[in-house]
Amino acid sequence: MSIAATRILEPGQIEAPAGLIRFLILAGRDLFARRADRFRFLAKGHSLGNYLAFLALLAEAQQVALDQFPALSLPGPNEQALCREHGMPLLAARSWSRDPAWRVALSMILQRMEAAALPSAACETIAELRQASATELEEKADRILAGDLADISPRELPFIASALQVYWVRMTSSLGEGAFGRLEQGGICPVCGSYPSSGIVGSDASEPGLRYLCCSLCASQWHMVRIKCSSCESTRGINHFILEGSSGAVKAESCDDCNAYLKLIYLEKDRQMDAMADDLATLALDMLMDSEGKERGGPNLFYHPGGLP
Ligand SMILES: [Zn+2]
Ligand SMILES: [Zn+2]
């Protein structure tokens, strides 16, 4: 794959008035099964095939953990109303007091991954995490949720992050869209306050052509107008890049004002694309943007800032 830059123009999009647009789309209960299929598909013939195939197994384990998730505590109607009224994320990643049930999800994921024929380094990591104390695991979770991914071992990150994702998806699907309100800041998740891993254009659940940002933690999608930087909301100096020779199904949208970029995934090119899987299958585009001096506007929790393990 060539990683030469191709700068392209993005046509403006006339959108319906904001009030008529579905503002929030929560992840479906089959999110991880679909994601696993996508990772498996992308792994075929890919230079990072082993890595993507490993993530397919991890996503499968996430689906099992979601399906068998134990009972958990959720915010009540008063708390929901208060957050909606004050424009605060109800399940804020940094401050929500986590139910220990998320560690049950982690155990389920580790148990399933243990049964897979993984390389010895991954098996060692699984064994270490299975022996880690609750305090140690909670500290690691705190760091991930605070965005300090560089402080976590690259081998541990995907396992712990995968359990946290399952926990947040489980909470959102129990509460439903009506529990959540809009935030003033358009670039962070209205559900949990995290940054987006990527943006999706043309979601199944909305009008064609609209852009939704996809949360790196809870996989909720929230509407944001196109031709606007998702990091600083500037409308000037927005550029789009694709890898030379690519179909344009994944583009990087960069901003001259804040120097951030976010990948946009165009579902009209392929309905099976996934916000997390297709992001990781296009790391060459991240290398290109890095060489342009741009920084990612949000993390992918399966990707360590220090590179692949
Ligand atoms: Zn979120
Ligand atoms: Zn910006």
Written description of the protein model:
- The structure is a single chain.
- It contains nine helices and nine strands.
- It is an alpha+beta fold.
- Strands 1, 2, 3, 4, 5, 6, 7, 8 and 9 form a nine-stranded mixed sheet that branches.
- Helix 2 (49-67) crosses helix 4, helix 4 packs across helix 7 (157-175) and helix 6 packs across helix 7.
- Strand 7 (250-255) and strand 8 form a beta hairpin.
- Bound molecules: zinc ion (2 copies).
Short description:
This protein is an alpha+beta fold and 309 residues long.
Mean pLDDT over the full residue set: 92
CATH homologous superfamily assignment of the largest domain: FdhE-like domain
Strand content: 5-15%
Q: Helix content range of the residues, please?
A: 25-40%
C-alpha termini separation? 22 Å
What ions, cofactors and ligands are bound?
Answer: zinc ion
- Low-pLDDT segments, ≥5 res: none
**What value does the Rg take, in angstroms?**
19 Å
Task: Figure out the total of helices.
Answer: 9
Structural class: alpha+beta
Count up the domains: 2
- Strand segment tally: 9
- Sheet with most strands: 9 strands, mixed
Which fold does the CATH topology of the largest domain refer to?
FdhE-like fold
CATH class assignment of the largest domain: Alpha Beta
CATH architecture of the largest domain: Alpha-Beta Complex
Shape field? globular
